[in-house]
Design brief:
The protein is of the alpha/beta class. It has one domain: NAD(P)-binding Rossmann-like Domain (Rossmann fold), CATH 3.40.50.720. 48% of the residues lie in helices and 11% in strands. The chain contains 12 helices and 8 strands. Helix 4 runs parallel beside helix 5 and helix 8 packs across helix 12. The chain is globular.
């Protein structure tokens, strides 16, 4: 006969696991899925950072529906590997084209756009998905010398989107999907220090990495301001611009700030609340393809529904950020 203490010791973790599983199932009922299954043959989608995480799952969904997808990735080898995996699963799926794009380099962006314009007559949907999260104490910069989050997450996509505008206009009705985050609500835009030198110097003094990265939050706020301004500028042109928050997802985006032991301590929270990359991609696919939102622009979506941001947006800040971004792209260096 098995001692009661052994039964008790075994029952506790099993009960916890079952409870967490049930909690996750209950939570996941709120994580909406894109139910649209319309054939996308003849449509061209361009996704930045399509080789992994949410970008990869988004590409997979679009290819399954016969869409043509351009994998705009910094590492062309990883883009080809991702395409090979999808093709193995979906031998009859849409066309996939790997292309090299380094959003930390204006020269790379320009070369990329030149090749895209030579090979494609139109772009139906641009999905600005790629992003970086790097500990501030590393003080990484783009090729032009901008702080890495500001330079890649905001300026790189700002420049890329504007250079591709002709191809998007040819495809109208077309869409631009900007992947942001509710972390934008923790962001701040200081025009006297867009490269956050103060925060970086403080991070260097402290050492290590913090789970809250103001560089990332600020860049997500800039994404939101950019999308709002772009939607306003393109109103009545046939190009819809919308923001997406994928939610808290299990991707490698926060690989620098979340260590292996965090997964042990935070396992119950992660199991109950963290989405898979596939679940996180659902709202991106929804905003890229669903006919129910055609003509709607300047909106923020989460779980395939409109989301009301808690951030108090300022039209003057929106206009100034656009103008300053144009000046910085033109100058090709921090001012």
């Amino acid at each position: 006969m098995v001692p009661s203490t052994v039964v008790y010791v075994a029952a506790v973790p099993i009960s916890v696991i079952v409870a967490l599983g049930l909690l996750r199932k209950w939570r996941s009922r709120k994580w909406a899925s894109c139910v649209s299954n319309t054939c996308l043959r003849g449509k061209t989608f361009l996704i930045t950072g399509a080789n992994s995480g949410i970008g990869y799952e988004t590409a997979k969904s679009l290819v399954r529906r016969k869409g043509r997808v351009i994998f705009a990735c910094r590492d062309i080898a990883k883009a080809k590997e991702a395409i090979a995996l999808i093709r193995k699963e979906q031998p009859l799926g849409g066309e996939m084209i790997p292309m090299q794009l380094d959003l930390s380099s204006f020269e790379s962006i320009e070369k990329f756009v030149e090749i895209v314009k030579a090979g494609f007559h139109k772009i139906d949907v641009l999905i600005n998905n790629a992003g970086v999260v790097v500990p501030l104490n590393q003080d990484l910069k783009t090729k032009e010398g901008f702080e890495i989050h500001f330079g890649v997450n905001h300026l790189g996509h700002f420049y890329l989107t504007n250079l591709l505008m002709d191809l998007l206009k040819r495809a109208t009705p077309s869409r631009i999907v900007v992947v942001s985050s509710t972390l934008h609500e923790r962001g701040n835009i200081n025009f006297d220090d867009l490269n956050i030198r103060k925060e970086i110097e403080q991070a260097k003094k402290k050492g290590g990495s913090s789970r809250h990265n103001p560089g990332y939050s600020n860049s997500k706020l800039m994404n939101a301001y950019f999308a709002r301004a772009l939607a306003c500028n393109l109103r009545n042109t046939g190009i819809d611009v919308n923001l997406v928050c994928p939610g808290f997802c299990a991707t490698n985006l926060f690989r620098y700030s979340i260590k292996w032991y965090h997964y042990i301590f935070m396992a119950p929270i992660l199991i109950a609340f963290m989405k898979t990359a596939k679940q996180g991609s659902e709202t991106v696919v929804f905003c890229a393809t669903d006919h129910s939102i055609e003509g709607k622009t300047g909106k923020f979506y989460r779980d395939c529904a409109e989301y009301n941001s808690k951030y108090n947006f300022d039209k003057d800040v929106e206009t100034k950020l656009w103008n300053v971004s144009e000046e910085l792209v033109k100058a090709r260096k921090p001012l």
